[in-house]
Design a protein that fits this description.
This protein has 4 helices and no strands. It has 120 residues and is mainly alpha-helical. It has one domain: 23S rRNA-intervening sequence (de novo design (two linked rop proteins)).
Length: 120
């Protein structure tokens, strides 16, 4: 008799796992963390925004009402932009190594494009 507390891999797939946007925001979050921001405030702001982009993407994928879906994807898009801006600011002010903003911006640009399409 199967154990109902065990979930196989197929059943464990959540709605956001099927989205390219999810992979993009996760890559963005990893890039933000790897940026090595030394200023505590900017690091916190960048990390919070990147994590919020991930969480809002997952939330949107699980919503049922189209208006809620669009709103959550739109929020995720804004958070991705905020994360990138915080890293750019950190680099410009000397709180992160030069070039880290370029890595983050590449990830953010893809995430923003994909999330924008989902928000429409």
């Amino acid at each position: 008799m199967p154990n109902h507390t065990e979930v196989n891999e197929v059943e464990a797939k959540l709605p956001h796992h099927h989205l390219l946007a999810w992979t993009a925001v996760l890559d963005l979050a990893r890039a933000v963390k790897a940026a090595g921001i030394t200023d505590a405030h900017l690091r916190d702001q960048a990390m919070r925004a990147a994590k919020n982009a991930c969480c809002n993407c997952g939330e949107a994928a699980s919503k049922m009402h189209l208006g809620d879906v669009r709103r959550s994807f739109s929020i995720a898009r804004g958070e991705a932009g905020e994360a990138a801006c915080a890293v750019e600011t950190a680099v410009a002010m000397g709180y992160a190594p030069p070039g880290k903003d370029l890595e983050v911006n590449r990830a953010a640009a893809l995430a923003i494009r994909l999330l924008g399409g989902l928000a429409r």
